[in-house]
Amino acid sequence: MARPREFDTEQAVHGAMLLFWERGYRGTTVGDVQQTLGIGRASLYAAFGDKEGLFLRALGRYRERYSAPSTAALDADGPALDAVRAFFRGLVLRYTDSATPRGCLVTTTVMECAGLGGTIERALARSIATGEAALRRALRRARATGELPEGTDTRALARFLVAAGQGMALMARVTGSRTVVEDVARVALSVLR
Fold first, then answer.
1. How high is the pLDDT of residue 5?
2. What is the CA radius of gyration of the chain?
3. Nearest CA to 26 among 163, 102, 122, 120?
4. Residues 6 or more apart whose Cβ sits within 8 Å of residue 110
5. For residue 84, which of 126, 130, 125, 141 has the smallest C-alpha distance?
6. Where do the H-state alpha helices sit in the chain?
7. All domains of the chain, ordered by start, with CATH?
8. Whole-number Å distance between alpha carbons of 49 and 21
9. C-alpha distances in angstroms, 58 versus 11, 13, 24, 46, 85?
10. Distance CA 181, CA 170 (A)
């Protein structure tokens, strides 16, 4: 008969999300997870399979808690460019919030794991593609309503804005300065005039 789990799985996923966000995927060892969350190795492996399995659950939590609400706001009623500007204001706040690690879990992990292939890289690519698609929908609405010129290449513009957002996360992580991140956002959004 299997012993009952001695920890709250959802709390463990949340704690792991914060740990990976702060230290990165490679910078977080299974021992770090055990020590920080107070979970035995056997229990950790029984619940999540391995470090990659735990990371993928943590990434899913990050998307649910942070990314999905942000990208959903891009589909809100009202002027589309206002939604894009609000999205960027939200990124500034999230990336520099003192209650969470600086920057973005996705950006941090992409910087470490890009080019390695595998499940993690595919999950990160999906996260970025989801943000790009949401921005592109908003930009298409803006073009359709005359907020952007008719010939605007919404795909290229969405990709630029994703790159700017990732750059903002990187700057937040490196500098910790909300002012620096706001400067990047302001200049990036200036292309929408």
1. 54
2. 19
3. 120
4. 124, 128, 166
5. 141
6. 9-23, 30-37, 41-48, 51-62, 68-73, 80-95, 105-113, 118-144, 154-175, 178-189
7. 63-192 (1.10.357.10)
8. 20
9. 10, 5, 12, 16, 28
10. 9
Report phi then psi at 25, rounded to 5: -65, -50
193 residues of the chain, pLDDT tens digit each: 455 557 789 999 999 999 999 999 999 999 999 999 889 899 989 999 999 999 999 999 999 999 999 999 999 999 999 999 999 999 999 999 999 999 999 999 999 887 778 999 999 999 999 999 999 999 999 999 999 999 999 999 999 999 999 999 999 999 999 999 999 999 999 999 7
CA dist., res. 143 & res. 136, Å (int): 10
Query: What is the rounded distance in angstroms from the CA atom of residue 53 to the CA atom of residue 153?
Result: 38
What count of Cα atoms within 13 Å lies in the side-chain half-sphere of residue 95? 32
Q: Report long-range pairs for 59-62 (Cβ below 8 Å, ≥24 apart).
A: 59/17, 59/20, 59/105, 59/106, 59/109, 59/120, 59/123, 59/124, 59/127, 60/13, 61/13, 61/14, 61/17, 62/17, 62/21, 62/105, 62/106
With contact defined as beta carbons under 8 Å apart, do 71 and 162 qualify?
no
The predicted pLDDT at position 124 comes to 95
Per-residue pLDDT at 1: 46
- Helix or strand (DSSP H, E) at 117: none
CA angle in degrees (0–180, nearest 5) for 109-129-106: 15
